[in-house]
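Table S2 (continued). Query chain:
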Amino acid sequence: MLRVLLGFLLAMRIVSLSWEAIAAEPATPPLPVDQLAKRLPLNDVPLGLPKKPPLPPDNRLSRDRAKLGRRLFFDPVLSVDCTVSCASCHDPRHGFAGPLPLAIGIGGARGRRYPPSLLNRVYGTTFFWDGRATTLEEQALQPISNPKEMGSNIDELLRRLGEDANYREAFAAAYEGGITAGNLAKALASFQRLLLSGNSPVDRFVAGDVSALTTRQRQGLWLFESRAGCWQCHSGKNYTDESFHNTGVSLHKQPVDRGRFEVTARETDLGRFKTPSLRSVALTAPYMHDGSLPTLRAVVEFYNRGGTKGPNLDPGIKPLNLSSEQIESIVSLLEALSGTLLGTNDSVNDPERRASE
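Corresponding output:
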């Protein structure tokens, strides 16, 4: 019972901000969120992140929009039977990713892919594993209408929201036009733009604090940036090139997931999937688009073997011949990419601390 209570408190702290907080309306259990940032737009971001996140001119961040988006994100009213919320798959206790290999929707329906983390998606250029959406607004409604996820008819959902006086008031305060499909998408996107992860030990090391990383983690960083070649895809301040690659994951599973090919119909995109950010990656097990690898060590071992051989495999995927000790160094480095979530001053997603609690 104590561990359950501690896990609940951690979930609440993960989604709070050290910036001067504003009160939010109670969220739907079991994943409540108490606070959001008052300092908007995002002029103050955690160490290591790009200083000016791209924000669309037609959906400027505001207190009212962020509060509304937060409430919608945790409210199962968005699903057809009021049983599944966005947070059901994008759990704050798991870095706003999924706790299971595949998304589980209404009626226990199993999705095709693992629910990726929403952390730092304010910096994203495409969304979903296959990149079929180009903005957070464009991606927001797709899980709501997906029959294997939330299964709602958008028009019926808008009618349902319109019957709630609190939602009518909140939409009116946030957007002209009140409750519309476009404003629903904008509100959800506004909340997601506040989900940030930075100020990790790696960031502090890069900024000049040589004591921020252990000897093993420094060795892992050297391997990451040289022999292991991780930097080729997990590049930049958000540790992703925002591109698509075929690493051989699930190439031989049936039915075959064709990945980016389903969007572009280009043969060169067959089996390619979006490069995820490595920010707070220690929180977001299991891994890969199909959730097939349960641990970070399993991921590094997969790449050490050279992925899975098959058609259209990226040329950079080849055996690395790393020793067990070197694999552990890279895993330790990946764990050191966990730091501050959402601008808090507490390392609530530190793996060692979470394990001890």
